[in-house]
């Protein structure tokens, strides 16, 4: 693996970790930056697989809480219901993701203009929802009703369009369904674990024939950088959104999407 490729892979891993759990679309950022830097992985596997680094970061940070939930599940109805709510929210992504996988990877992932537009539109939606979301009725991510979890799961599927943002879709959906800002972010964290792990496993299976040793080197570098940077973001995010909401991320999306559109219009 060349030094320049290593640096690009590390930079993309850094971007993945910094953006995965905030509602700005990590995949959209990766694809746009990769486009402008001339980086393209076989089957777009790099962009999906390094997300596992971010998943491991959140697993580490929530390890004690996850252990408490699963160890108490045999005798605690709340723990069982929480596990079920996450699984229910995960199911729509399984079915739609498998059915639409090839279209997503070969068409949507290859359309930088669409990604930039979705960043801008998502930013506008985020600014709007941050202002008009109903008064919170659910302050604990572990107590979301099952019907609410299923609705969030279907809303998450919008993020299969790169630029929409998985965390952005789930957070906006949860806010509009009555979750507090902190609870919306936490449920998005928990839902990311099976969703991203499932996407990683399926994508690795689908692209097993196009992976090679050099791709594994790039993925390893990006994976480590995504893990380290995600650790920092998750620790910071809950405290920030509890106090300040999501407007910052709405403006971020609009600015990045606008810059990308300008560069694309200029022929880059």
Automatic annotation (TrEMBL):
The keyword Metal-binding does not apply. Signal peptide: none annotated. Keywords: Antibiotic resistance, Cell membrane, Cell shape, Cell wall biogenesis/degradation, Hydrolase, Membrane, Peptidoglycan synthesis, Transmembrane, Transmembrane helix. It is a multi-pass membrane protein. InterPro entries: UppP. It catalyses: di-trans,octa-cis-undecaprenyl diphosphate + H2O = di-trans,octa-cis-undecaprenyl phosphate + phosphate + H(+). The chain crosses the membrane at residues 48-70, 82-101, 113-132, 144-164, 184-205, 217-238, 250-267. Its EC number is 3.6.1.27. One of its GO terms (cellular component) is plasma membrane. It is found in: Cell membrane. One of its GO terms (biological process) is response to antibiotic. GO terms for molecular function: undecaprenyl-diphosphatase activity. Coiled coil: none annotated. Belongs to the UppP family. Bacitracin is thought to be involved in the inhibition of peptidoglycan synthesis by sequestering undecaprenyl diphosphate, thereby reducing the pool of lipid carrier available. NCBIfam families: PRK00281.1-2, PRK00281.1-4, undec_PP_bacA. Catalyzes the dephosphorylation of undecaprenyl diphosphate (UPP). Confers resistance to bacitracin. This is Undecaprenyl-diphosphatase. It comes from Sulfitobacter brevis.
């Amino acid at each position: 693996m060349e030094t320049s490729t290593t640096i690009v892979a590390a930079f993309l891993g850094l971007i993945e970790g910094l953006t995965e759990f905030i509602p700005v679309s990590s995949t959209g950022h990766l694809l746009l930056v990769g486009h402008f830097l001339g980086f393209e992985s076989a089957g777009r596997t790099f962009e999906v697989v390094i997300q596992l680094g971010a998943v491991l970061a959140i697993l580490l940070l929530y390890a004690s809480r996850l252990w408490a939930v699963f160890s108490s599940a045999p005798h605690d109805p709340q723990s069982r219901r929480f596990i079920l709510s996450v699984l229910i929210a995960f199911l729509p992504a399984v079915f739609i993701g498998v059915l639409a996988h090839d279209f997503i990877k070969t068409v949507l992932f290859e359309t930088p203009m669409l990604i930039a537009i979705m960043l801008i539109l998502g930013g506008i939606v985020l600014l709007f929802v941050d202002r008009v979301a109903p008064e919170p009725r659910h302050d604990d991510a572990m107590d979301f009703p099952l019907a609410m979890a299923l609705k969030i799961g279907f809303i998450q599927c919008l993020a299969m369009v790169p630029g929409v943002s998985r965390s952005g879709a789930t957070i906006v959906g949860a806010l509009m369904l009555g979750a507090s800002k902190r609870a919306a972010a936490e449920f998005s964290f928990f839902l990311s674990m099976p969703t991203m792990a499932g996407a990683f496993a399926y994508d690795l299976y689908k692209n097993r024939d196009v992976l090679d040793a050099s791709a594994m080197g790039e993925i390893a570098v990006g994976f480590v950088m995504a893990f380290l940077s995600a650790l920092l973001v998750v620790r910071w995010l809950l405290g920030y959104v509890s106090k300040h909401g999501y407007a910052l991320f709405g403006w971020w999306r609009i600015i990045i999407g606008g810059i990308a559109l300008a560069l694309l219009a200029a022929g880059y």
